[in-house]
Specification:
The chain has 108 residues and is mainly beta. Helix content is 10%, strand content 30%. It has 1 helix and 5 strands, in the order ββαβββ. A 5-stranded antiparallel sheet has the order 1-2-5-3-4, covered by helices on one side. The longest helix is centred in the N-terminal third of the chain and has 11 residues, at 27-37. The model has no long low-confidence stretch (mean pLDDT 85).
Length: 108
């Protein structure tokens, strides 16, 4: 089984999504993990409360991820080394994930 559990995905400069292995966690567990791992973003004393509301089940999207030994060119991310990123369904080593997009949590 895959070693991936959950992590923030970023755009090269800041975190933009929280991604959770869908076969290991439920949507409700994904929400709990997101709030737990990113609690500082919900606090006004840090980042002026960047995230205004906590995620709901309706905020969760399903996508497919896999592990890459080098960052794919299509990512547009200039970094050497390994990464997890989105891919097409049924690619070798791919698995489903729950995705919470942080930008969706900045509006009420």
């Amino acid at each position: 089984m895959c070693k991936f559990d959950y992590m923030n995905f970023n755009d090269g400069s800041s975190d933009v999504e929280f991604v959770v292995h869908a076969s290991k966690y439920t949507k409700l567990e994904a929400i709990e993990l997101c709030v737990q791992e990113n609690d500082w973003q919900f606090m006004e004393k840090y980042c002026d409360g960047t995230l205004i509301r906590k995620p709901t089940v309706e905020d969760i999207k399903e996508r497919i991820v896999r592990y890459y030994v080098s960052v794919p060119d299509y990512c547009g991310y200039d970094r050497e080394g390994v990464c997890y990123t989105y891919c097409k369904r049924n690619e070798r080593g791919s698995f489903p994930v729950w995705v919470i997009i942080f930008d969706n949590l900045v509006t009420v």
